[in-house]
Each structure stands twice: as C-alpha cells, then as structure tokens.
C-alpha cells in the first residue's frame, strides 16, 4: 500500500472511530444505578438519655392510653390472646409486650424485581429511592394542574423506568381518576409490571385489592417464588393519633400472611395529629409503629415490615402542612435512631415541598428533605421525586428535576475515595507551584468520572444559554420529559406471563360493576 493510501486508511479509521463515538453518545441507553450502600456517617441527634425517655414514654402511651384497632374483631381477639387489655376497640398493651413481638421482624428485606438486576436491599446501610405516591392531581408546564388519568400514571411509570438514579417503580404515583375506584388498582399494578422491570408497591385501599396484588405477582413471578420471597412493598398508614382502621389492617393482614413487606407509617402533621414538640411527636410515632409492627407479627411472626415516619409541621396561620422545616428534620433523624434501636428498616423523607410550582420554594424544601433523609439513615425513601403542593400534585417536570438530583445523593453517600490514585500525589508533583491541573496526567485519566454532573441543569456560558432560548429549569425539565418518553422502550416480558396478566385483569374487572366511591 502506498503512503497516500495508508494515510487515507488512517483518516478513515479515525473518522470511523469518531462516528462510533458519536453514535455511542447518542444511542438510547437505559441505565439503572444500584441501590445506595451508604459510606457516610448517620446523623445521631438524640443522646442515650433522650432515647430512653422517648422509649419509656411510648410504652406508657401503649399501656395507659392504648391504640384503637377499629372495625376488626379478629385483631382484637389476637391482641386479647397475646395478653393485651382490650376494651371495646381500645387495645392497651402491657409494657414490653409490643417490643417483644417486634423482635421477630427481619432487620433487612430483599425485594425482588422481575429483572433480578433491579432487586433492592432495604435495611442496614442501604438507601432505596421510590417516586411520589398518592396525588390525585398532576401538573405539567403545558397542561397545568388537572385530575390525573391512567395515561398520566403510565407516563410516570415510564419516566421512573428511564430514570437512572431511581431504584423503585413505586405504587400509586398518581391516582388515575378516569378509572373506577374498585378497579383502578388492577390497571396500576399491571402498568408497573408491563412498563418497568423495577420493584413496585401493592394496593392497600381494600383487603381484596391487596389480594389481587398478590395474585398478579404470582402470575408474574410464579406462585412458589412469591411464597418464599418478598416481591412487593406496600404502605400501611396509621390514622394518627393512635388509630389503625379496618381497611389498612385488612391489607396488612393479606400482605403479612403472604410474606410481603409493609411500611407501618404514622401520617403526622405536627400540631394537628401529634404534639407540637419534637419529643412529643417522636413518642407518638414510636408508640404507633410499635403497635402496628407488633400486630403484623401477631398475624405472622417474621413478616417483613418497615418502620415508617411521615412527618410534616403545620403553618399556625393557615393550617397548611409545611415541609423541609428544621422540626421535621429533627423528627426524621430521631425516628431513624428509634428504628435502628428496634432493628427495623426505616422509611421517611422524600422530595417533599409545599410549593404549587416547581420553583425556588420547591427546590429549597426538597433539598432540605432529601439531604436530611440521606443523613438520617433512611432505607426506603418514598416520594423521592415528583412531589408538589403538599402531596396533592405529581409534577412531570419536578419528577425529572428530583430524579436528576438523586444522583448527587448517590455521590455523597459514596463517601470519599482514599485510594492511592485519589490521593493524587503524582499530580501535585507534576504540576508544582504556580501551574494548573487541566492538562496533567491525573486529570486526563480521571476527568470523565471525577465530578458528579447533572443530566438536566444548565452549565453553559451566558451567551450560549441566551442563544438557546434562555431556558429556565422548568423549561429544561419539560424538554427532558419529552426526550425520555421518546426514548422509552418497554422491558421485555414473557408473552405467556403477559397474557396471564391481561386475562386476570379482564376477568376481575368483569366480575363487578364500576364504583367511583
């Protein structure tokens, strides 16, 4: 080959390499980060004296005041048999009994996904991110605030599947109001199973709907696998103060008997459903969780449960709940300590805010809560992205804004690399006094991974930013949502399993008339 031909071949090779690199950069890649294993210290805000006071006071609440277990004679019978003082629907639990019952609950839970690479560990030093849960409204920049539909629900599931830093598909990411109340759980569970291969949550709005969730998992995973493994996590809210209702208990019973995980979570707005003081609220939280977890163990010893604490404060002028406040942070940190002393996984936190828009208020309050939850040792972080307007609204733009920032939490949780390469002594020697590090060997070897970089926020110079439309973060997020949905590709699902799920959903829907209350 002549020198000219060799030179042309080299140019074509370089051009081909460049084209390959460009193709690699623009190819659709669905990445999913592994759940976090925290390498940073956990905030311990309460000293031993304070912890003992709260634990002693919580036992007093259970023994002297008691907890209401309403509309469930079977629960009252179980408590009576266990040695509790049961009068009408009030259950007074002797000192130490609830804690003794809680001891059979596992310290960590493996929740299996249909893609085993997406399995998550909940407990110990791990943190799992799950999206917003429960809003009846949705919001986006183009359509504004409106009631959620099933199409909106499916959009959120797709965004969750496409979000690298989100480990979990969640549950009721929004409430699809265009589907009958008694049937929408079927469509929601089906959407999680079809459109994502991440783990998900089951229905809790009726014991029969919890049973449907278990039955659908038996189709997806196989009946024997479900009997031996946890494939769902579900949210059992306590009606604070100190009441467990028949619906929540019924769902808890279904999941406990099926070996599926439940988050036992007081729903507290301080000053309305709990005392205004941090110590008083923590006392009530612990008493309610002890009662709920203990009951799960009466139903089935060893049933997987998570210590939950959803806490907001209240604006004493308007009565509205507030989020990202110092008091809520203190309660979160204290509840985490109490959960760890019980040996239970801990749920709290999220991208909580009271703002009506994905604006500066939303960003401040969200950042406060996300960072507090990470440092507070939260194992299962529900509402980690998409929450707006005190939980009334699920926002598409805020979903991707929050999901992007979860990447920063991954980086913080990893701690500091102290390897020889990270010590960078060769770089310091190479550059010396008065130099710069941009071109040194260490920088060239590490620049791609040295700093966490947002996939959404704008870092361009002013002139470039202005030429590209001077877009604010919400505008960037709107574009990001559209791009993610355009790139979405459903994970493969065995056709036999898919047909089994379709048949089950159709049969259950045909079995009863629509009900919208």
TrEMBL record:
GO terms for biological process: methanogenesis; methylation. One of its GO terms (molecular function) is methyltransferase activity. Residues 1-23 are annotated as: Disordered. Its EC number is 2.1.1.-. Pfam families: MTTB. Signal peptide: none annotated. The keyword Membrane does not apply. Gene3D superfamilies: Trimethylamine methyltransferase-like. Keywords: Methyltransferase, Transferase. It is an enzyme of class 2 (transferase). The keyword Methyltransferase applies. Belongs to the trimethylamine methyltransferase family. This is Methyltransferase. It comes from Pikeienuella piscinae.
């Amino acid at each position: 080959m002549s020198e000219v031909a060799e030179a042309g071949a080299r140019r074509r090779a370089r051009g081909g390499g460049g084209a390959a690199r460009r193709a690699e950069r623009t190819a659709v890649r669905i990445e999913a980060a592994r759940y976090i294993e925290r390498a940073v210290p956990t905030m311990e805000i309460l000293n031993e004296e304070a912890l003992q006071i709260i634990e002693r006071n919580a036992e007093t609440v259970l023994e002297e005041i008691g907890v209401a277990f309403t509309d469930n004679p079977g629960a009252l019978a179980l408590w009576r048999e266990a040695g509790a003082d049961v009068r009408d629907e009030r259950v007074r639990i002797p000192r130490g009994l609830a804690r003794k019952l809680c001891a059979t609950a596992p310290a960590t839970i493996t929740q299996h996904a249909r893609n085993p690479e997406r399995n998550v560990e909940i407990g110990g030093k791990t943190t799992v991110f799950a999206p917003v849960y429960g809003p009846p409204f949705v919001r986006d920049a183009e359509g504004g605030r409106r009631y959620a539909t099933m199409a909106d629900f499916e959009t959120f599931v797709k965004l969750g599947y496409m979000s690298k830093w989100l480990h979990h598909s969640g549950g009721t990411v929004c409430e699809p109001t265009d589907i009958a109340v008694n049937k929408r759980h079927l469509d929601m569970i089906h959407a999680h199973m079809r459109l994502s291969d991440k783990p998900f949550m089951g229905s809790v709005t009726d014991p029969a709907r919890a049973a449907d969730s278990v039955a659908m998992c038996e189709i997806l995973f196989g009946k024997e696998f479900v009997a031996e493994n946890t494939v769902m996590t579900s949210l059992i809210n306590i009606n604070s103060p100190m009441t467990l209702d028949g619906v929540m208990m019924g769902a808890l019973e279904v999941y406990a008997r099926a070996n599926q995980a439940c988050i036992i979570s007081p729903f507290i707005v301080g000053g309305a459903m709990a005392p205004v003081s941090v110590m008083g609220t923590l006392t009530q939280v612990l008493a309610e969780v002890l009662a709920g977890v203990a009951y799960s163990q009466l139903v089935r010893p060893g049933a997987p449960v998570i210590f939950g604490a959803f806490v907001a404060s209240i604006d004493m002028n308007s009565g509205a709940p507030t989020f990202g406040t110092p008091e809520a942070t203190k309660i979160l940190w204290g509840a985490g300590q109490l959960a760890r002393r019980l040996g239970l996984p801990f749920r709290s936190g999220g991208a909580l805010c009271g703002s009506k828009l994905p604006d500066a208020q939303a960003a401040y309050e969200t950042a406060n809560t996300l960072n507090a939850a990470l440092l507070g040792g939260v194992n299962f972080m529900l509402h980690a992205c998409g929450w707006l307007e005190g939980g009334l609204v699920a926002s598409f733009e805020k979903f991707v804004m929050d999901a992007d920032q979860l990447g920063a939490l991954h980086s913080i949780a990893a701690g500091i690399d102290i390897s020889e390469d990270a010590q960078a002594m060769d770089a310091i020697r190479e550059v010396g006094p008065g130099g710069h590090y941009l071109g040194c060997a260490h920088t060239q070897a590490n620049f791609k991974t040295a700093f966490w970089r947002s996939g959404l926020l704008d870092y361009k110079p002013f002139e470039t930013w202005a030429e590209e439309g001077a877009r604010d973060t919400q505008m960037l997020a709107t574009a990001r949502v559209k791009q993610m949905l355009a790139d979405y590709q459903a994970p493969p699902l065995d056709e036999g399993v898919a047909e089994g799920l379709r048949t089950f959903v159709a049969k259950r829907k045909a079995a009863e008339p629509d009900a919208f209350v």
